[in-house]
Specification:
The chain folds into 2 domains: 31 residues, no CATH class; 42 residues, no CATH class. It has 4 helices and no strands. The longest helix is centred in the middle third of the chain and has 14 residues. It is elongated.
Length: 88
């Protein structure tokens, strides 16, 4: 991670630190967040694709074979072209 030296008004920095603490974060984290948002505003926005996980119609839970404690299991389920009708 790179360090950056900037000049800011002392009172502004004090107020920003207090606000960051109240929000449960740090001033450095807020500056990183704001810079990332600043950079992203030039990027074309693409709609967020929310993957669908196969859900059991009878229980409402995840289909058998998907381990809720395993990210790998979730990714495999999202990537797989699962025909839910065949799994019932």
């Amino acid at each position: 991670m790179a360090n950056l030296t900037i000049s800011l008004d002392e009172n502004l920095v004090k107020q920003a630190r207090i606000k960051a603490i109240q929000e449960g974060t740090s001033l450095s984290a807020k500056v990183r967040e704001m810079l990332a948002a600043y950079v992203r505003q030039d990027l074309p926005s693409t709609p967020l694709a929310i993957p669908k996980l196969p859900v059991s119609q009878s229980t409402g839970g995840l289909m058998p074979g998907i381990d809720p404690s395993s990210n790998r299991s979730f990714y495999a389920a999202m990537d797989a072209d699962i025909d839910i009708l065949k799994l019932r």
